[in-house]
Every structure is written in structure tokens, then in C-alpha cells.
Amino acid sequence: MTLVCLGAMVMAGKPNIAPMGSNILNVHLVAHTHDDVGWLKTVDEYYYGANMSIQTAGVQYTLDSVVTGLLQNPERRFIYVEIAFFMRWWREQTPATQKSVTELVRNGQLEFINGGWCMNDEATTYYDDIIDQMTLGHQFINENFGVTPKIGWHIDPFGHSNAQSAIFGNIGFDAFIIGRMDYQDIDWRLQDKQMEFMWRGSRSNPEYQVFTSVLRAMYCTPSGFNFEGGDDPIQDDPNLFNVNIQERAEAFIAVAQEYSTHYQSNNVLVPMGCDFAYMNANMYFKNLDKLIAYINANPQYNMNLLYSTPSIYIDAVNAANLTWNVKTDDLFPYADGPYSYWTGYFVSRPALKGYVRQTNALLHVTEQLMVTSQSSIPNVQSMFPQVEVLREAQGVAQHHDAVAGTEQQHVAYDYAQRLSIGQYSAYSVLNTVVGQLLAGTSSNPIPSMSFCPLLNESSCPVLDYLVFNTSVPVVLYNSLSWTRYEYVNLPVPIAQVSVSNNNGAIKSQTTVELDGSAWVTFVAEVPPMGYATYIIAPAQAEETTAADVAEAATPSVHDSQIVLQNPFISVRFDATTGAIVSITNVTSGTYINVTQQFMTYAPSVGDSVSDQCDGAYIFRPVNQEPTAYTTTNPTVSVVNGPEVSTITRFWNENMVQIFRLYANAYFLEVEETVGPIDISDGLGKEVVTRYNTSLNTNNTWYSDSNGMEMQQRIINYRPSWNYTVMQPTSGNYVPLNAITYLQDTNQNLQLTFITDRSRSCASLGNGELEMMLHRRTLMDDGRGVGEPMNESTQIITTTRIVFHQINNDAQSFYRPLALAHQHPLFPVFTTTTYSSNVWSSMYQGTYSPLNYDLPQGIRLLTLQWLDNSDSAIVLRLQNIYAIDGQDTVDTQTISVDITTIFAFYQVTSVTEMNLSATMKLAAVNRLNWNTNSANVKPVQPSLNGDFTVQISPMDVRTYIITLESN
User: Fold this and answer.
1) What is the dihedral of CA 87, 91, 94, 98, to 10 degrees?
2) Kindly report the CA angle at 712 between 628 and 619, in degrees rounded to 5?
3) Cα(843)–Cα(837) distance, rounded to whole angstroms?
4) End-to-end CA distance of the chain
5) Are residues 579 and 524 both part of a single domain?
6) Are 577 and 451 part of one and the same domain?
7) Statement to judge: residues 839 and 814 lie in one domain
8) Within a domain: residue 4?
9) Looking at residue 551, what is its pLDDT?
10) Residue 558 has what pLDDT?
11) 550 in a domain, yes or no?
12) What is the full DSSP assignment across 599-648?
């Protein structure tokens, strides 16, 4: 295994570049193909070229053809991006072909750009997944070619996030090249030559700034020069008719000169390719050869055409030694016209978005347990290929037409099927690992483990064994690096159950709903990156006190309000409708009035102003103000219990809301069942939940960037340009991955919402926040997917609400809670006929591979085998707090001694790496840039000689470690 790459691509001979100050324009022709990892066809259909009637695309033919073309002429260059495809192709090649391709990479003719498993979406992806999929692609490139890409190439995602730019900086990229920018933003940039800038996306880590270049006209070949797509070929033979070389050359020169008027250096990048291009590479290369030769042979054009790559282009721009403006805000929302805001996909296919978040959590559970169990299970690495199935499925799902929800329906099914296959492959690993950890070194039989993937739907078949007088041990795994005390809800078939752990019976509550279903609730204490076992057993009536079973009941007609309260929070509800009225922070005594309602926007089908329809990408409501979605009062039931109290609001099977307040939790939990959305009236609908509060927010709210730093949002405002309001609603919608909040700085109050999947949010009025939950449209929006997003899914989504003060430890209220919500305690089940005491004496009911809880604020983000044969392990540590201008206590640099973390292992080596774990940090040599703002220090090593590391706020640091069992 190659742990350290040699850097960027090694060039056999660098192209001639005219220096800045000359009258020569360098035109960098970048031959490329943009290969969607699923969109109109599935990832496999795209690779093999199946279903050509849907789209003419076959990636294997592109790679075959490109390699042949590159071998014919050493001057030609080509870039490739999506490693999910390249890996398939590479494994099919003969050793001779692999050797030839390796030489093409070595001499710079074939260059990997970006290099992730896919070109991920930036609005609906979580930072765990972005890092994982980039690592997956980079590890493949590094293992097979010994190099690491140096340029980010996101030329198709529908808007760009601050977190993405910082992640690319952390990887060590020299630049980030993008294709899409809001039409208003790009208009002034074109005029002022501001198409390139330094993007400082992280306030906490400005050293991860990345030079950013916006393509002049998206990523496809200029009109008239798509030689593979039917444009006229270049005829330069005077012995034949229709010679057109001069006319074609001068037409191209005009394009290049127009492009150059928008950039500051004497370099311009012209993409030559498009979606699934170069299936017949010879048609492109042969004509480009002629174009380059003719223009360069005529010095009167003052133009130097060359086969180039983004890295060659960026090096040339850097050599110009210019000074660049600094940008700190993100590129959301994105619009390509006054009625076309790409803010619908933030919510499209919410069931898939939820599934992707769940499998992310499962992947981390599985990878951690494989590493930490190696001393107990010597052959655990043999199961590595089974984990790879989920890794690769998860990587594919991050594509900007996958989790984004902008694919055709059959492709969405394919993504879900791949995740399901990966999920059950991971279950197979966990069955072995958890079973053997439970059995330990004893001679007791290794228990067979079961899983409940539909637990949120009240479905867990293994718990049905309780009716047969069988006990069900539940192993709860905690993938976070601190001890968690959390409430667990499990559906049970009987109301009389007891819960115990190794120390005996513990307090629990069984709630019987009006429909007869029952849930057991108890508090679990689970050690960091370990598990604790709780045994659910049938209980005799005399063993269960009256307080243990709570019955749902309808509220008394004499009560005007219902109050749910614990030592931290008090929430009032209207007794008739069950609607929330106010929230009080019991600790501080502060309160706010709150109302919540479900509303719906009607999707546009085009009108006299514009034919733009609402669809998978576009959110364009008919009216700027939504209407009520639930027009009748719901049936309301209330449970008052010792562990959890609930209010359930039931309209119908497709619209249910449950408020839960646990006895010792500082948050209110809201579970909502939405869908399938009714279209029997022939109308699509977009369902939102809107909260109106008494907070004075100055029309400002905050949303997270891919789960990382918070972004300030102000209604009808853009920090980077003078914004003209065209769509008052959709133009204010922004991505929400995990956290959003409102603040009243005068009262020092904050209301925070934490979600279980990506959504969208907006504050369209003072003190107001709305989040879109689900959408179903009946028209195509004309952005290429070619079908309505008419998906008849039901989602069960959970939001946690925290009401707290803005003070020195505000982030401690929501940052750990958000991580716990994204990475819930993971349950693994087995059954036994033994009593709880006997089973606990036979099996190791608790397990913790760490010596202690990591320091507050430190998350052990990644613990995974680098591959399936080495002892090398990727360890990532993150400081979860950010510098946000308010907190001072939480946002400190935190020290961790890596040698003291693990209980069963001695750390024998630690090497600090770039974020994708393919290059030693000491070997990362990023380009230096001049800016019109204060320059920032370069990235400093976090590792001291004694293996103690310093993690600054919101930083993620990556190490390769080796472990030796104690």
C-alpha cells in the first residue's frame, strides 16, 4: 500500500506558456467528459452504454477511445474525474493496457482532476459523506498511480457551499473550478473581470482558502466546435473541396478572445467536451490537432493554443502574480434566470435523502467496529470487501443527481437498491463482529444478531418474539467519541415489559397508543465508540408498577392548554388542536410565543410571465404565500409518563405529528409523518412547516453548510452583489443539512432546529422560520431530467428543537445534539430464552475500546482500515465547534494525546496526512496567491513529536496510524 503520494501529476514536458505582459493569449483547451454517476440512466447503464434510446452514453467506450487517441499523439491531453466509472474500466483492462495508461498518467497526458468517487452535490450532502467519497476516489488513484489530484472540478453542481471549498483546501487542492453561478452574480463578474477570486469559505480555518475560477460559459464545447456531436469538421487539405480551416480558426479565435475579456491574466480555459463526450475521441482529437497547428502557425493571431489541463491553467494564472479579491460567502441559492431558482432539489426525494443519512451512520458504525475489534477477532480484515460494498454505494449516492433528487425515477430506485445491498452487506459484518464481541473468549455459543432497518416505521420483527416469552437483548452502539445518555424508543408487541442491563432492572415506560400499538422508552448509557446491552423481557403484571405503563388519552374538554415540562424546558399546547403555543427555558426562565402550522405551495406549471415550471430542480410557487395544508382540526391524544410525555396530532394516515418531551432532555422532539402527497385534485404540492415566534430576528436566520459552519442569511440580500428580488419566496430558500436557528440578539435568545436529513429553509418574515418537508410536482422543469418528480413516498422525519440563550457555550447546546441526531445509537438485536441475569453473566454486555471520553468538542470522525491487508488505519479528529463571532469558551484549540485514546492497543506510529489521507501533510505544497485582504498563514502541522495533536475550531485533521494489540 502506498501511503504517501509523489504529489501532483508528473509532467514529462511542460507546455510553452506565454508570460503575463506579452501580447500573446494562452488558450488552454481542456479535453474532458462529464460523466454523471447516474441521472437519466443508472450508473451501470451509463458505464456499459445500455438504453441508448434514453441517452447516447457509454463510459467504457469513452475511456477506450480516449486512451487510444492519447497514445497516438504525445501532445494530446485529457482529464478524467469520476473514479466510480474509472475503477470499473481499470479492472477490466489487460496488464499491457494498464501499463500504457500508467505511462499516460506519469507523463501528464491523462490527468485525474477532482478525483472523488463522483462529483458530489454541495447542497444536500453531509460533510462526513463528502470526505468519505473523496477519500475513496483518491485512495484508488493513489494505490494505482501514486498521485493525488490537485484541482477541484465541480462544473455541474447546482450551487456551491463554503464547506466544500474548505474541504478542498484541506485536501490540499490548489484551485476550485466551477461552472454554475447565479445569473445576477455572474453578470457583474463578467463586466468587472471578477470571474476568479480567492474563496475563504471557513471563518474558523481561513488557511483552507482556495483559488476559485468560474467557467465563462459552463463546461461544454463552444458552439460550432462539437466535432463529435455533428458540427462541421475542419478541412485543411487544399487538394480537396470545402477547405474551411481559416474560417473555423477565426471563428474559434473570436470565441477565445471574447472569453479572455472577462479574466485578468493572459490565460483562458476553454472546455472541449460535455456530458459523456469522447465516445469517438478521434473525431475530437483529430480536429483539435488541426485547429492548434493552424492558429499557432499564424503569429498574426497573437494566440497560443495548447492541449492543457486545469492544473496547467492554474499554474499559469498563478505565475501571472496578480492580486485577487477574497470571497467569504457561499453560492446559494443558485438561479439561471429570474424565474428559475434551483432551490427545489434541496428537498426533492426526501425519502432517499433520509436513507443516505442513515447509511452514512451505518458505515461509520461498521468501519469503527472493524478496527477496534481486531484484537478480539483476528480475521476481521477478511470482511473488508463487504464494507467496500457500502462504501462504494454511499459514494455513488453523493453524486449531484443522486442525493440531490434530480434523477429519473428508475435511477432513484437504483440508488436505493445499491444502498440496500450495501446496508445488508454491512449487517453481515456486524452480525459476526458484534456476536463475537458478545461471546468474548468464553465457550458460550456466539449469538446470531438481527437488525431492524424499518424501526422508524414501528417495525422490528425480532421484538415480536416477546409474545413467546422470549427476551430480546438490544446491543446499542455509540459511534461518537463521548459517553451518551440518551432515550431509546422501541416498538413492543405487549405492554408488560421490563428492561435490564448488567446491573439489573432499570426504569422504563411502556406507552400504549390509541391504536393499540406500544412503545417502550428507557435511558441508555453507552460508552464512547462502544456498546451497552439492554434486555427487553416480558414482565408479569405484578412486576410492573402503574407508573411504568402510560396510556394515550384525549385531552379533557375543560382544559384550554396542555403543558409538557421537565427540569429544562416547558412547552404549552392548545388542548383542542394540539398546536404549540409557547416554549419556556426553565433554567433561565425565558420564554417565547411560538405557533406552528403545515402549509403548502402550489407548483407553477408556467404562466403568462414565463413558461418556467416547478420541478425536480426548480422551486417556483404559483403564489408567494403558501396556503394551509391541514385545513381541519386533528385528533389529539396525550401521554403523561415518567420517562416521556407526548402529544400526537392525527389528521390522517398521511399526516401525523408527534411532540415528545423526555424526562431529562433539554430539547423538544417533533416527529412528522408526511405523504404520500395527495394529487387527486390534479395538483402538485410542496409541504412546509412554518414556525412563527415572538423573537425579533431582524429578518436574519442561520443555516449550516453541509453540517459544518453556520451561514448568516438575510432576507432579500446577497453579501457579494446588489441583489434584485425576482422570486421573493424561492429566492430566499437555502440548504439545510442539519442545523438552522433564529436569534434575538436584544433578548440574547436562540431557537435552534436540528433535522435528521437535508431540507431547505427560509425566514420570510421577522421571527419566522419555515422548512420544506416534502414535495411532489407534476411537470418537468426543463433542466434535463425529462420527467415530473411525481414520487409517491411517505417520510417519517424527526426534528429536535432547542430554546437557549446566546452565550459563551451556545454551541454546546446544538453541536453535540446535531451529531447525535445524525449518528443515533445503533441497535443490534438477538434473542434468548435465558433470564436477564443468566444472559448477562454469559455475555459481555458492555464494550468500550477507548480509555476515556475524548475532550469536550473533539469528535473522532473517522476510524477505518486504509485497505484490507495493511495495518495502516485512517484516523480523523474534528473540533466540532466553530468560530462564529459569539462563542468564546467552546471555540478553543483542543489537545489530544493519540497514544492514550485506545484501551486495547498501543499506537506505534502517527503520520499526519492531507484530508483524503493520500499525501503526507509535510509534502503538501500549495500555490501561494496574492489577495487584497490580509494574507493568512499556511496550514500548520497539528502533530507534535510526542503524538499530541492540537485541533483548532472546526478543523478536521487526518492521520495514518498503526496499532499494536496490548
Assistant:
1) 30
2) 40
3) 10
4) 25
5) no
6) no
7) no
8) no
9) 85
10) 60
11) no
12) EEEPBPB--SS--PBP-SS---BSSSS-EES--SPPEEEEE--SSEEEEE
Torsion of CA 879, 882, 888, 889, to 10 degrees: -30
Find the length of the chain.
966
Distance CA 160, CA 181 (A): 8
Whole-angstrom distance, CA of residue 154 vs CA of residue 113: 10
Where in 759-849 does DSSP place strands (E)? 759-762, 768-776, 795-805, 826-829, 846-847
CATH of the domain at 115: 3.20.110.10
User: Domain ends where: 820, 838, 869?
Assistant: 820
In a domain, 7, yes or no: no
Q: Are 638 and 749 in contact (CB under 8 A)?
A: no
Let me know the angle formed at the C-alpha of 787 by 781 and 788, rounded to the nearest 5 degrees.
65
**Cα four-point dihedral sign 889, 891, 893, 898:** positive
Asked if residue 336 belongs to a domain, the reply is no
**Which cell is 698 given?**
431582524
CATH number for the domain spanning 909: value is: 2.60.40.1360
Helix (H) or strand (E) holding 474: strand 472-477
C-alpha cell at 754: 436540528
Cell of 218: 459552463
Same domain? 751 vs 796: yes
Place of cell 446559494: 332
**Cβ contacts of 557 within 8 Å, gap of 6 or more:** 575
Count of structural domains within the chain? 4
Beta bridge partners of 34: 275
Beta-carbon contacts of 806 under 8 Å, excluding residues fewer than 6 positions away, are 743, 745, 748, 749, 750, 886
Are 227 and 307 found together in one domain?
yes
pLDDT of residue 376: 84
Read out DSSP for 651-688?
Answer: EETTEEEEEEEETT-SSEEEEEEE-SPP-TTS--EEEE
Q: What is the pTM of this model?
A: 0.96
Alpha-carbon gap, residue 17 to 267, rounded angstroms: 9
Residue span of the structural domain in which 321 resides: 25-157+162-327
One-letter identity of residue 743: Q
* 716 CB neighbour count, 10 Å cutoff: 12
- Position of cell 422501541? 490
Amino acid (1-letter code) at residue 825: L
Query: Nearest CA to 185 among 63, 332, 283, 315?
Result: 332
Distance (Å, whole) CA 586 – CA 571: 10
Domain final residue, candidates 820, 839, 869: 820
DSSP-derived letter for residue 365 is H
Mark whether 170 and 309 lie in a shared domain: yes
What is the reported pLDDT for 8? Answer: 39
Q: Which three cell numbers stand for residue 562?
A: 396542555
- Which CATH number does the domain housing residue 441 bear? 2.60.40.1180
- Average pLDDT of the chain, as a whole number: 94
State the SS3 of 495-564: CCEEEEECCEEECEEEEECCCCCEEEEEEEEECCCCEEEEEEEECCHHHCCHHHEEECECCCCCCCEEEE
Are 512 and 634 within one domain? no
3-class secondary structure for 83-141?
HHHHHHHHHCCCHHHHHHHHHHHHCCCEEECCCCCCCECCCCCCHHHHHHHHHHHHHHH
Question: Comparing C-alpha atoms, which of 332, 211, 208, 311 is closest to residue 269?
Answer: 311
The catalytic residue positions are 156
- Confirm if 167 and 203 have CB atoms less than 8 A apart: no
Residues of the chain whose pLDDT is less than 70?
A: 1-13, 541-547, 556-558, 868-870, 885-891
The DSSP 8-state label assigned to residue 312 in this structure reads: H
pLDDT at 573: 97
The burial of 7, by beta-carbon neighbours within 10 Å (0-12 exposed, 13-18 middle, 19 or more buried), is given as middle
pLDDT value of position 143: 94
Q: Could you give the 3-state DSSP secondary structure of residue 412?
A: helix
pLDDT at 891: 67
User: Do residues 768 and 900 share a domain?
Assistant: no
